[in-house]
Amino acid sequence: HPPFNPPMPWFGIDVGGTLVKLVYFEPQEVLPEDAAEEVEQTKVILKYLTSNKTYGDTGIRDVHLEMKGVPIDHHTGTLHFIRFPSSAMEKFIHLAKAKGLSSLNTTVCATGGGAFAYEKYIRQEMKLELNKFDELESLISGIHYIEQHHPEESYYFENPLNDETCRKVPHSIRDLYPYLVVNIGSGVSVMLVESRTKFRRVWGTSIGGGTFLGLCCLLTGCETFEEGIALAAKGDHRNVDKLVRDIYGGDYSRFDLPGDTVASSFGQMLDPEWRKNAKPEDLARAVLVTVTNNIGSLAMMCAMNAKVDKVVFLGNFLRVNSVSMKQLSYAMDFWSKGKCKALFMEHEGYFGAVGCLLEYMN
Ligand code: ADP
């Protein structure tokens, strides 16, 4: 098709239930057909975005995820990855306006529920053209694009529960169809991907990253995701959960259930003595293990039902959360008797934002 060149700057934005993910494409070279005015204004915005790593109180650029030398349309450039809480969306709109974004003849590509919720606001306040895209379509096309342009994007864990021998092993998912994608955001969606263009949503659950964060705040008094994860990393869920061995005195061998399997999440908390002894870090760990195992067993059922043996876990719940990634790796391997593999991707929560930008370009 003839080159389609919407005015720069090019943004993709995914306004989720908890976090806004923003990707910005910085062109490497100025192409002759680009209008001069557009180039100047792009420079101003670029300078602001790339000379900072944080924006306002809550905006953060994930510098370690930056992708250089990638093609979009007939341009080559750098993709920048920025996130901030969805609760700061109005502040962001004012900031973008103040930085002159609304004076540009720019189109914003948006996905996620917030693309609908903030539609009027973006059009009227910012005077921007808004192109909305479906979040799951965007997610899948973002996965394909990033996988293609970032060599060590996807990986699995070898010996996940052994601190000494555990290691990340690169493992490309290119043309590995069929596989499942389990996106763990505020809630969880499970997709069956059968080819580059064929996928469907097969399941979901409301018990996701938002559940971990919400319950963790309630039970421990923590205020942020990072705090909750740090607490959980220090805690022991066995001070909160009832295990098979607490009931059987050992393994339940008739059905191959090891003694340290959780029989009842939070099951010890009915006892006042146990309740008194459970520390905030133990409670945080127990919430993390409960949510993670629930997602793991759901993923397992979906994989068996669809007869696939590869499951790709994504979403910002996995950010700085190696406890859950290792737990999922171990659980998938153990419960499938080595048949099913858990895979992960470096760009965790950004696939939807990248995908909606691409869908516009196509
Ligand atoms: P959504 O599109 O629903 O916002 P995300 O993929 O962005 O989904 O994941 C949101 C989840 O990521 C939160 O529920 C929380 O568990 C986790 N998370 C990771 N980092 C943060 C953070 N800095 N602030 C809030 N939640 C975070």
TrEMBL record:
The keyword Cytoplasm applies. It catalyses: (R)-pantothenate + ATP = (R)-4'-phosphopantothenate + ADP + H(+). Its EC number is 2.7.1.33. Pathway: Cofactor biosynthesis; coenzyme A biosynthesis; CoA from (R)-pantothenate: step 1/5. One of its GO terms (cellular component) is nucleus. One of its GO terms (molecular function) is pantothenate kinase activity. Signal peptide: none annotated. Its main location: cytoplasm. It comes from the Eukaryota. Keywords: ATP-binding, Coenzyme A biosynthesis, Cytoplasm, Kinase, Nucleotide-binding, Transferase. GO terms for biological process: coenzyme A biosynthetic process. It is found in: Cytoplasm. Belongs to the type II pantothenate kinase family. This is pantothenate kinase.
